[in-house]
Each structure stands twice: as structure tokens, then as C-alpha cells.
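Look over this entry.
=====
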Amino acid sequence: MSRAWQALRALRLRLMGPTKELVGTDQFGNKYYRVPKHESRAGQVIPERRFVEAVNREAYQYQIGDFPAEWEAWIRKKREDPPTIEEILKNENYREEMKQKVKDVSEKDRLLQAKEYEEGLVAEPSHTQVKGHASAPYYGKKETSEDPTSTANTFQPGAWKPPGSDSSQNK
């Protein structure tokens, strides 16, 4: 019986390909699968495929942060082994600690700058109002254009003359 079962299994694998294997789930409930490397009916080697089935999400609703970075690295084959829950939680705690440290340092820096402004050690930044675009040749000024303006319906070749050029100068 086992030989017949193996033959049926091999035939199914040859015809339909391997089935997906559940590798793990994350804290959000997303399920991660892999389809192992296999050979197609034509003899072509199909590499391992990894993918995720998101919880209550359509493909167009994907948002950054919906999947832990560790699982995303596994899906993109940046790491060989799938992450563990302990690893994900440890990294998440580390990221939260870093966010808190950045927040503390930023607040400390803001207070130090305020103190330096009060004592007159540092000049306060000036607040300017920008008009126009800085890359414009005449920043803030309006200049009349000497370029010809017309539409395709009224354009006559040779009708435009540069400013300051008279027909008497050309003779």
C-alpha cells in the first residue's frame, strides 16, 4: 500500500506541483507560506516561492508596517530561516526604546536651544516670506517677456521681429 501511495503522491506532485506549506504567523494574524523548490512537468526547475496571506486585506490596501520587517526580509529571501515570535518582539521593543531615546534627545536639544536663544549665545533664526521660485532668473520680480506669443492659428512665419530691430538697420 505504501508503494502505491508514494506513486500517487509522486504523480500528483508531477501534475499539480507541490502544495504550500505554512511556515508561521505574526502577531497581526498574517500567515506566511512557502512552496518548495520543485520540477515542473516539462522538467524545468521552479525555485522556492514565499508569500503571505494578509488578514482582511486586499492587495491595493497594503500599508507599510502591516508586516513585521523580519517577515518581510524572509519573504524577500534576505534571510534563510523564518523569524520567531521572540525575535520579532525583541526587535519591536528595541525599536520602541530607540524612538523614546530619540524623543528624549530631541526635547533636550530643543530646551538647550531655547536657553541659548534666551542668553543671546545664538541668534534666533529669521523667518522670511518667500515669493516666487528661487531658481527663477528674476526672483520676486515680474519681467515682461520678449518672446513671441501666438497660437498656431495666427502664426505667420517671418512676421516676428526681435525688439529694437528695425527694417532700416538690416539694410
Remarks:
- The mean pLDDT is 78.
